[in-house]
């Protein structure tokens, strides 16, 4: 489903909102948006950019379309030359990484890592401030990489969405295949990951 | 009363005065000083190509050797000025070709220049030495070929961030074998591959070559070969710094860099592969300027380079450097004067927060000479701004872009008024300021009260009312350029302080609430200004007078209305019969 927003600016407006992506139901449950501004937008006449506040995770069964983000012309003030250069570079393998309970997403370039270990270390560092205070979370991830067992509910497990839209456990397929097929990563609580493993195995087997 | 100075003596004295600001002051002393000064000025700067006519400039400065022109307003960089607005080089080149054939240097910024223009430059100025085009457009590589082929004494050819229609890499091959005078070549914004062997030969026969900036299409191998031929370079822009890692290539590259003992400035580094970065280690200790803002590598790799750059004065980098990387910069780069941190995610979507206000605070604390800052960041706090201003009262240029519009202090949730107050109160030499984040009218009261030396001010998504503009126009005495977008002020402050506009170079306002009627009033009251209403949606006359217009660009001019206005630009000269509206003028 698509959502079209039009911002009414004085004089007919020069900005329009982008269309919300066609997100699948599962993605909606895990999509944590950047939550920077808890304040309601000051209400100005003729309305300037207004971004919906999406600090909470959407309920699993939500049929509500994900909030659209408005794109503002010329903001942030980055020269088009620079934007063009960056988008040429970014075609590659940027994937979003979210972690249950963390207030923000990260975006990483998978091509910058050489192995699961490398990735795991980077993820641990990135989200270290948000893992459980008893530090089990970080270890839980690394353990998972090495031992390939599902952790109990207090640990974290990295999963990823592949090109087919299926959610798999990170670590099941050879690294290069993973880089090719990974579209986004979600570090989920162990309790939620239990359903994933069998599918991943089946899929791998069916590929062979 | 003293005897008047003989003009020969005055000429001699003036030959020691380079700064145009000083020369402008000299011109005001008396008629004979004006006359002597104008006959001796060699380097002419025109900050707004529409502020004066080419004929006037040409006539006033007959000995002109270098002309610098700026066209579109700054916000054109962010796509706020529609295509076709103006800024054409042709009228200038046409006049100069006839009247100032000894011209040697042309520098254009944000202007539209055609191949025809370039051909005319090549054909008309026999002593032509330097062409520098910054953020220009309208030409193809054929025009560049004309310059290369014809200008026998060419020293400088720099294309910086231009939009060029790239018809191929042949242009480079038009440099004749007899051309040996090149000092600086920058073709970093072109896409096509040039013939490496031609480039190698050009470099080999240019003993004075000091600055070489390659485009992305030049490979690592190509770079290595060129460096071997030009170890005297002081400024290098690499091509694409990436390839399958090969130890042999790495060692050749390292060796080539090690020979470049005079390298001071390094840029380019597109697509850089971290494994090749150590090849740069030998030049790091000598670098004073480093542009890593296109290098998409992680913080540890960036730190590997930066910790060796202890003489660095200018650093441009992306937010991939993170707070941690900036700690290294703070510790090692004690000579840092300018820091720019760009967002790796230019869109509003999903920005990483590994770079916070702490990074800038850390650098500000430790780098005593830091005076110029451009910082894109997801969040900021008043406390950080206060700290920065306390440690660095010497800041001259402060441009903070909090990426989220209306973002408050992320800890206290207050507006950033107090933080910017500290900046303008503490940094008494501040010349340029860009503000962002949640700001009320109060912030502008502080700016008006304290930012007396600020010449250029950029504002977006800020303020509550006309008060904000009132504070700025009544307070900022040194203000020359003001650009504002998406702020909620209307007509009254603008009309009240109309006279101020004659003391400024220009004022840009877009997506604010200024009405067409006010524009008409301003146009009537201040004939020395061009008041341009730039509205692509509706011709302003088609709507009621009190309706707000999309964009307004006001600038002082001696040249009167411009003759090259497109349809979507209105000035009062388009309908001179229109009378002043019934708006009350206080």
TrEMBL record, chain A:
It holds the Pfam family AUX_IAA. One of its GO terms (cellular component) is nucleus. Residues 36-71 are annotated as: Disordered. The keyword Transcription applies. Its main location: nucleus. InterPro entries: AUX/IAA_dom, AUX_IAA, PB1-like. One of its GO terms (molecular function) is identical protein binding. Transmembrane segments: none annotated. Keywords: Auxin signaling pathway, Nucleus, Repressor, Transcription, Transcription regulation. GO terms for biological process: auxin-activated signaling pathway; positive regulation of leaf senescence; regulation of DNA-templated transcription. Residues 92-190 form the PB1 domain. It comes from the Eukaryota. It is found in: Nucleus. The keyword Transcription regulation applies. Aux/IAA proteins are short-lived transcriptional factors that function as repressors of early auxin response genes at low auxin concentrations. Homodimers and heterodimers. Belongs to the Aux/IAA family. This is Auxin-responsive protein. It comes from Arabis alpina.
Automatic annotation (TrEMBL), chain B:
The keyword Transcription regulation does not apply. One of its GO terms (biological process) is SCF-dependent proteasomal ubiquitin-dependent protein catabolic process. It comes from the Eukaryota. The keyword Nucleus applies. It comes from Arabis alpina. One of its GO terms (cellular component) is nuclear SCF ubiquitin ligase complex. This is F-box domain-containing protein. Keywords: Auxin signaling pathway, Developmental protein, Nucleus, Ubl conjugation pathway. Pathway: Protein modification; protein ubiquitination. It is found in: Nucleus. CDD domains: F-box_AtTIR1-like (cd22159).
């Amino acid at each position: 489903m698509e959502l079209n927003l039009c911002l009414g600016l004085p004089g007919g407006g020069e900005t329009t909102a982008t269309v919300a992506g066609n997100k699948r139901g599962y993605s909606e449950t895990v999509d944590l948006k950047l939550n920077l501004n808890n304040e309601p937008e000051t209400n100005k006449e003729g309305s300037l950019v207004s971004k919906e506040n999406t600090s909470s995770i959407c309920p699993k069964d939500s049929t509500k379309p994900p909030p659209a983000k408005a794109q503002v012309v010329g903001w942030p003030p980055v020269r088009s030359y620079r934007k063009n250069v960056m988008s040429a570079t970014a075609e590659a393998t940027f994937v979003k990484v979210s972690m249950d309970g963390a207030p923000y997403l990260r975006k990483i370039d998978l091509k910058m890592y050489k192995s699961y270990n490398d990735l795991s270390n980077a993820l641990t560092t990135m989200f270290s401030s948000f893992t459980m205070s008893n530090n089990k979370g970080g270890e839980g991830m690394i353990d998972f990489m090495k031992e390939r067992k599902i952790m109990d509910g207090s640990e974290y497990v990295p999963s990823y969405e592949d090109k087919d839209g299926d959610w798999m456990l990170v670590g099941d397929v050879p690294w290069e295949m993973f880089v090719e097929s990974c579209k986004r990563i979600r570090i989920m609580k162990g309790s939620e990951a239990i359903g994933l493993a069998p599918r991943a195995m089946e899929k791998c087997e069916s590929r062979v | 009363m003293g005897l008047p100075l003989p003009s020969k003596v005055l000429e001699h004295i003036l030959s020691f005065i380079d700064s145009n600001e000083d020369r402008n002051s000299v011109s005001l002393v008396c008629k004979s000083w004006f006359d002597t000064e104008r006959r001796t000025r060699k380097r002419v700067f025109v900050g707004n190509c529409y502020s004066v006519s080419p004929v006037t400039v040409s006539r006033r400065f007959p000995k002109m050797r270098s002309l610098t022109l700026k066209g579109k307003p700054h916000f054109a960089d962010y796509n706020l000025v529609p295509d076709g607005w103006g800024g054409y080089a042709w009228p200038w080149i046409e006049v100069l070709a006839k009247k100032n054939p000894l011209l040697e240097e042309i520098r254009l910024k944000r202007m539209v220049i055609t191949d025809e223009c370039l051909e005319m430059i090549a054909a008309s100025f026999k002593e032509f030495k330097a062409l520098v085009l910054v953020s220009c457009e309208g030409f193809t590589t054929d025009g560049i070929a004309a310059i290369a082929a014809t200008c026998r004494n060419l020293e400088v050819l720099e294309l910086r961030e231009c939009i060029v229609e790239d018809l191929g890499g042949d242009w480079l091959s038009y440099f004749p074998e007899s051309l040996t005078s090149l000092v600086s070549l920058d073709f970093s914004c072109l896409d096509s591959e040039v013939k490496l062997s031609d480039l190698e030969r050009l470099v080999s026969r240019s003993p004075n070559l000091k600055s070489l900036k390659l485009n992305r299409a030049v490979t690592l191998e190509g770079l290595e070969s060129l460096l071997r031929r030009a170890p005297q370079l002081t400024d290098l822009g690499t091509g694409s710094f990436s390839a399958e890692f090969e130890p042999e290539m790495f060692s050749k590259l390292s060796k080539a860099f090690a020979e470049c003992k005079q390298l001071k400035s390094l840029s380019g580094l597109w697509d850089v592969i971290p494994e090749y970065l150590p090849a740069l280690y030998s030049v790091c200790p000598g670098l004073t300027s480093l542009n890593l803002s296109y290098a998409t590598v992680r913080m540890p790799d960036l730190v590997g380079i930066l910790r060796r750059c202890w003489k660095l004065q200018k650093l441009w980098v992306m937010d991939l450097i993170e707070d941690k990387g900036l700690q290294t910069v703070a510790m090692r780069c004690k000579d840092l004067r300018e820091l720019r941190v760009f967002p790796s995610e230019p869109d509003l979507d999903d920005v990483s927060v590994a770079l916070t206000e702490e990074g800038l605070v850390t650098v500000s604390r430790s780098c005593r000479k830091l005076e110029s800052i451009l910082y894109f960041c997801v969040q900021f706090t008043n406390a950080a701004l206060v700290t920065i201003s306390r440690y660095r009262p010497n800041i001259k240029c402060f441009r903070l872009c909090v990426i989220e519009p209306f973002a408050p202090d992320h800890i206290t949730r207050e507006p950033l008024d107090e933080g910017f107050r500290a900046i303008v109160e503490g940094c008494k030499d501040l010349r340029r300021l860009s503000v962002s984040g949640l700001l009320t009218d109060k912030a502008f009261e502080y700016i008006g009260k304290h930012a007396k030396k600020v010449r250029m001010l950029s504002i977006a998504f800020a303020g509550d009312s006309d008060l904000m503009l009132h504070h700025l126009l009544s307070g900022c005495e040194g203000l020359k350029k003001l650009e504002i977008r998406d702020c909620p002020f209307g007509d009254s402050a603008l009309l009240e302080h109309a006279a101020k506009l004659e003391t400024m170079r220009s004022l840009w306002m877009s997506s604010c609430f200024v009405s067409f009627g006010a524009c008409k009033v301003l146009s009537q009251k201040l004939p020395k200004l061009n008041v341009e209403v730039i509205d692509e949606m509706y011709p302003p006359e088609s709507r009621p007078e009190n309706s707000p217009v999309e964009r307004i660009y006001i600038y002082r001019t001696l040249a009167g209305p411009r003759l090259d206005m497109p349809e979507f630009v209105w000035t009062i000269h388009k309908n001179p019969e229109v009378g002043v509206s019934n708006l009350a003028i206080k």
